[in-house]
Amino acid sequence: MSSNLILVLNGPNLNLLGSREPEIYGHDTLDSIAMMLEDQAAALGLEIDLRQSNHEGHLVDWLHEAGSRQCLAVILNAGALTHSSIALHDAIKAIPVPVIEVHLSNPHARERFRHRSFISAVARGTISGFGARSYALALDAAAQLRQ
């Protein structure tokens, strides 16, 4: 991939970060995560485009866009769609761009239905359980893909 662009895609309910179940997801908002990632991306010589939608189809369209724009990588926190979306699974398989799956919490330490991910099988890797730092770790991993 020739691009230094990384799409950071966020699924349902992630617009509520900071106020939704802070004991699980922390107090960071999506805006504060975006600011952290923008600073980190600049230091790494990368560009990020952070987006959020509560609609599965938007995420599918954005994954397709990542492929057509030849992005370096996609960082994807699909939220609850992780556990239910075959459409996201298929969209990831359909693009040549590596996808890094991210979760703020550790899904395996939570309810049983969260133990299954339709994303993991087609993602380049998964980072979970480190709160907002999960995104930063994923961005570091994406930067390594340039080499």
Account of the protein in words:
By secondary structure, the chain is of the alpha/beta class. The protein has one domain: Dehydroquinase, class II (Rossmann fold, 3-Layer(aba) Sandwich). 36% of the residues lie in helices and 18% in strands. It has five helices and five strands. Strands 2-1-3-4-5 form a five-stranded parallel beta sheet, with helices on both faces. Strand 3, helix 4 and strand 4 form a beta-alpha-beta unit. Helix 3 runs parallel beside helix 4. The longest helix is centred in the first third of the chain and has 15 residues. The protein is globular, with a radius of gyration of 14 Å. The chain starts with a strand and ends with a helix.
Strand-pairing-aware structural class: alpha/beta
Largest sheet: 5 strands, parallel
What's the CATH architecture name? Answer: 3-Layer(aba) Sandwich
Give the percentage of residues in beta strands.
15-25%
> Which strand order do you get reading across the main beta sheet?
2-1-3-4-5
InterPro entries: DHquinase_II, DHquinase_II_CS, DHquinase_II_sf
Pfam families: DHquinase_II (PF01220)
Catalytic activity: 3-dehydroquinate = 3-dehydroshikimate + H2O
Family: Belongs to the type-II 3-dehydroquinase family.
TL;DR of this structure?
The chain has 147 residues and is of the alpha/beta class. Helices cover 36% and strands 18% of the residues. The termini are close together.
Name the descriptors.
single chain, 147 residues, alpha/beta, Rossmann fold, globular, DHquinase_II_sf, lyase, EC 4.2.1.10, DHquinase_II, 3-dehydroquinate dehydratase activity
